[in-house]
Amino acid sequence: MTTPARRDPLAFLADEVADLKAKHLYRPLRIMSSEQGPVATVDGREVISLSSNDYLGLTHHPRLKAAAVEAVREFGAGSGAVRTIAGTMDLHEALESELAAFKGTEAVLTFQSGFTANTGVIPTITGEADLIVSDALNHASIIDGMRLSKAPRKVYPHADVAGLEAVLREATELGRPAGAGPYRLILVVTDGVFSMDGDIAPLPGIVEVAERYGAAVFVDDAHASGVLGRNGRGSVDHFGLTGRVAIQVGTMSKAMGVLGGYVAGSQALRDILVQRARPFLFSTSHPPAVAAACREAIAVMEEETWRMDRLWSSSARFKAELTRLGFDTGRSETPITPVIVGDSEAAIRFSSELFEAGVFATSVVFPTVSLDQARLRTIITAALTDEHLDRALEAFANVGRRLGLISG
Fold first, then answer.
1. Averaged over 369-379, what is the pLDDT?
2. One domain, residues 127 and 229
3. Is 195 a catalytic residue?
4. 105-136: per-residue pLDDT in tens?
5. What sign does the dihedral 12-18-22-26 (CA atoms) show?
6. Domain span holding position 189
7. In whole angstroms, what is the distance from residue 263 CA to residue 120 CA?
8. Which end of the chain is more exposed for a tag (fewer CB within 10 A), N or C?
């Protein structure tokens, strides 16, 4: 008897990959073989990096490296367990206490990433009796957190305070469906800085409207952490709204230069997350080196204030020069500077040719952005020198003219 050929049940995945390549939406991974710095070795080539979230240049700071090494010597390479079993070290508790003081909140709970913080807190504190109201361009982690919640959700137009008020007015007037009464909690969720366009949420208006309708505000400050506010305390501090925002999610993976996310708010919020947040309950805690380096990063941010000054002055110069050359940088207000070219194939080719010219600027295409908004997403860091910026701008000008993206 002939044995029938075995069919691969996942064969369709190869077809989907081929389709992505045909539509110029496929991006291979770049491999770095150096430290994450202003100049890095990527795919064997030395390039100026405009693709790192290391806003303050702390990934290779000697104080953070020394703190990490010392923690490994004293506490070992890993923590060995989840926090609720045997994985809570005094390093973790000290980090959270220092973050709470830094953010001006009662308490902080750390997570393995900003993504897991959002997917942990949103479904933990909301349910069928609640309503989530979200900005249309919120981060994917917020969207996934909402999907994991049983709460109904409504979306308001991006950064539109009047649109938010219209949603809240309707929600409070009509209450829950089928006469079920008012919502237990209305949670207004927004990014502080939007990661693809680099614009800042209109938080004063959002908070004022939310307070008027009895809603709580949740701000994901991943790209505002270390960038906005006093010494990088974030968008809430930037607008003088400390104490008026119920929940702040921050990251230790970007400006702080290490790894992890955190939720800042009340002690009761921390307590309930410890008991119920699934990413916290089922993930091993941060290795000692990570916790120690994050603690040192807070100290450096407080002491080396020149880093934020350099970050903003370099960003302003870079953005202004790109605009002068004729590039579309959208609505950016921060060190995130998109270079919008529209077509996915053009964006990928632009990125590739810049790489050959010695500049690493990553292309971003659908589904991260809409099909007609393909772009290069550049991020200026405090570690970039004037010479780095000059060389990068020269490459943008030369490659942009050669590809017909700008004139002159």
1. 92
2. yes
3. yes
4. 999 999 999 999 999 999 999 999 999 999 99
5. positive
6. 62-303
7. 10
8. N
Residue 226 banded pLDDT, cuts 50, 70, 90: very high
238 and 293 in a single domain? The answer is yes
Same domain, 170 and 295: yes
Residues 84 and 127 occupy one common structural domain:
yes
Same domain, 286 and 361: no
Q: What angle do CA 286, 380, 334 make, to 5 degrees?
A: 90
**For this structure, is 254 an active site residue?**
yes
Question: Is residue 200 located within the same domain as residue 282?
Answer: yes
> Does the residue 89 lie in any domain?
yes
DSSP 135-174: ETT--HHHHHHHHHS-S-EEEE-TT-HHHHHHHHHHHHHH
Cis peptide before 182 (omega within 30 of 0): no
Does any domain span residue 354?
yes
Q: Which long-range contacts (CB under 8 A, 24 or more apart) does 331-334 make?
A: 331/197, 331/198, 331/199, 332/197, 332/198, 332/199, 333/198, 333/199, 333/200, 334/193, 334/198, 334/199, 334/200, 334/223, 334/224, 334/227, 334/228
DSSP string, 105-121: SSEEEEESSHHHHHHHH
Measured distance CA(274)–CA(115) in Å, rounded: 17
CATH number of 363's domain = 3.90.1150.10
Tell me the per-residue pLDDT of 326-341, one tens digit each, with 9 for 90 and over: 999 999 999 999 999 9
In the chain, how many domains are there?
Answer: 2
Whether 223 is a known active-site residue: answer yes
Selecting among 223, 238, 286, 388, the annotated active-site residue is 223
Q: Which of 24, 254, 286, 388 is catalytic?
A: 254
- Which pLDDT value is given to residue 2? 66
Catalytically annotated residue among 195, 285, 344, 351? 195
Per-residue pLDDT, 320: 97
Residues 127 and 244 in one domain: yes
pTM, two decimals, is 0.93
